[in-house]
Write a structure and sequence with these properties.
Elements: E1 5-14, E2 21-31, E3 36-40, H1 47-54, E4 62-67, E5 70-71, H2 77-84, E6 85-89, H3 100-108, H4 117-127, H5 143-155, E7 161-165, H6 173-188, E8 192-196, H7 200-203, E9 208-213, E10 216-219
Parallel strand pairs: 3-8, 3-9, 6-7, 7-8
Antiparallel strand pairs: 1-2, 1-4, 4-5, 9-10
Length: about 220
């Protein structure tokens, strides 16, 4: 059975000539469905870069990525991401002019969204305890409410893989615990969850912890 995420030999450089800096130098990772993997490492070590490559938000200079057995082709990355990947950012990235519900429904309106996405969006909002604030604008919501809406948006198209970049970094302890419980629940439901973090509360709940060192991933 194919891993939900399989990456081999990832290389990523920024800059050119003498100013070029190799951030990833042969990084690889496998993550199965039902598994929550935390990635740790010092600031600037390439953790977020790796996540962006896995989600097709950036293009690797070398190596391969397979999502649910499907090769990530940079020319069709957007389509694969819409079908297979949900992304949760530390800064939420909610559209400020849209209500919470409208933000979640954005993913359901994208070309290629699976049938029933609108109903799933409303079901997720209810399940995450957000019905009372779904009509509010992002600036009217707490950080925890915004992040739960961002998670609902990431799940609305039923992704195989959920990638989360420091999802609790902007939250207080109570809100962070709620978000972490959600990510653990998502993994237990059979999805592959990869979380970049620096917080022990996240690594304590992970099935595996990987450390980014010198452009590669090793067991922490």
């Amino acid at each position: 059975m194919d891993a939900a995420v399989r990456a081999r030999g990832l290389v990523k450089e920024y800059g050119r000539g003498r100013a070029a800096r190799r951030i990833l130098d042969g990084a690889g990772i496998d993550v199965d469905g039902g598994e929550l993997v935390a990635i740790v490492g010092r600031s600037g070590s390439g953790k977020s870069t790796l996540l962006h490559l896995l989600g097709g938000l950036d293009r690797a200079d070398g190596g391969t990525i397979d999502i649910a057995g499907e090769r990530l082709d940079p020319r069709r990355a957007d389509a694969l991401r819409r079908r297979r990947v949900g992304f949760v950012f530390q800064a939420f990235h909610l559209v400020p002019e849209l209500t919470g519900e409208e933000n979640v429904l954005l993913a359901a309106r994208l070309p290629g969204a699976p049938a029933g996405a609108r109903d799933r969006a409303r079901s997720l909002i209810e399940r995450l305890g957000l019905t009372a604030v779904a009509g509010s604008l992002p600036h009217e919501l707490s950080g925890g409410e915004q992040q739960r809406l961002a998670i609902a948006r990431a799940l609305v198209n039923e992704p195989v893989v959920v990638l989360a970049d420091e999802p609790t970094g902007n939250l207080d302890e109570g809100s962070g615990a709620i978000v972490l419980d959600l990510l653990r629940e998502i993994a237990d439901a059979g999805r592959a969850v990869v979380v970049v973090t620096h917080e022990s509360a996240v690594t304590d709940r992970a099935d595996r912890v990987m450390a980014m060192r010198e452009g590669r991933l090793d067991a922490a």
